Amino acid sequence: MSEHVTNRHCQAKAWSQNAIHILEAEGRRTADSHLCSVHLAGFSGIDVYFKDESIHPTGSLKHRLARSLLLYGICNGQIRSDTVLVEASSGSTAVSEAYYARLLGLKFYAVLPRNTSKSKVEAIRQHGGLCHFVDEPATIYDEAARLADRECGYFLDQFAYAERATDWRGNNNIAESILNQLSLEPHPVPQWIVMGAGTGGTSATLGRYILYRGLATRLCVPDPEYSAFYEGWRDCDPNSVSLRASRIEGIGRPRVEPSFIGNVVDAMLKVPDAASIAACRVLSGLLSRRVGGSTGTNFIGVLWAAAEMKQRGETGSIASVICDSGERYADSYFDDDWLSAQGIDITHPTELIERAVSTGELSPDLFLAQRQRGDTDTPKLHRQHA
């Protein structure tokens, strides 16, 4: 009996070590993402960079997270050769996890809101993943846990484990990579890094690394209109909720996720969806290729940070992230009929963003609210959403 157990343990360990080798080899093959410079004429002396995470094999920032989550599960002994993997996702994380599950020969289920973009659903299926839809986005957590239990599988749970699965001290994480790539630039230590929150794992990695390296860099987290993160951070309330699901895929959540570490965030903004979508279109024009809505939210944060620096007479650099390609949103954010059906008019915010880019004048109409760490007054509410 003991010999049988020993052999089974040895086989499991051998599979785990081989799986880790496969994941590490894939990481080396795909190398690092590019850091792109974006010229904003209205902000002289302020250099802006976007780290292009859309170039990963699965097309988004979530490629890094998916690899980390699988490594985390394997090294904890919870993912084995016959384990069924399950994830709760709005799309991009599931695309990346399906890719890695197929590399390892594992069955994968994605639990998705029914309104997830068709292109993401198709990408999950192309990588061999199975899609399990729910009508209410807030139920994806419980449904994923239930499905994992039914399949005797493993719930990857990006929202709980994103912040701990990633090595925030280094190991070529996104923060270390940004700083390395900036090392020969005129302003190698950015004044601001701007990154929206979905799981909260990337903003946690960035904020922790800033503190760990003793940098003067500040972290700004722009939050979509329908999301709980901003209010939770502002009010120090981990139980804050949003009664409506975010329309900016990849960021914004109906609750403050466990992976969101508010103590490392220096400033947050509340960004209207119309501004996020207008910004992704304007930035797409500047880059000559499409970027997604979450990158548009980041761009609003970049403009806010640049305006803060300009007002203080500061020069320096700002870094942010291209989260995914806008080609995934051809039938939504880049479709005027879809915008009309959603009741979203981007005409005015587009004018304001283009003016900010060319003149450096930033209108408060691009924000619902903004707040920096240390503010003692009430949040600066500029307008209420109609």
Structure commentary:
Helix 9 (229-234) links the parallel strand 8 and strand 9. By secondary structure, this protein is an alpha/beta fold. 42% of the residues lie in helices and 14% in strands. The strands form two sheets. The protein has a seven-stranded mixed beta sheet with strand order 1-2-10-7-8-9-11, sandwiched between helices. Helix 2 packs across helix 3 (92-104), helix 3 packs parallel to helix 4 (118-126) and helix 6 packs parallel to helix 8. The protein has two domains: 29-60 and 169-372, Rossmann fold (3-Layer(aba) Sandwich), CATH 3.40.50; 61-163, Rossmann fold (3-Layer(aba) Sandwich).
Which CATH architecture of the largest domain would you pick? Answer: 3-Layer(aba) Sandwich
- Oligomeric form: single chain
For this structure, the CATH topology of the largest domain is: Rossmann fold
CATH C-level class of the largest domain is Alpha Beta
Q: How many β-strand runs? A: 11
Number of domains: 2
The ordered string of helix (H) and strand (E) elements is: HEEHEHEHEHEHHEHEHEHHEHHE
Q: Would you identify the regions where 5 or more consecutive residues have pLDDT less than 50? A: 378-386
> Fraction of residues in helices?
40-55%
Largest sheet: 7 strands, mixed
Q: Strand fraction band?
A: 5-15%
Number of helices: 13
Tell me the radius of gyration: 21 Å
Output mean pLDDT. 93
Shape type: globular
Strand order of the largest sheet: 1-2-10-7-8-9-11
N/C terminus separation: 69 Å
What structural class is derived from the secondary structure elements? alpha/beta
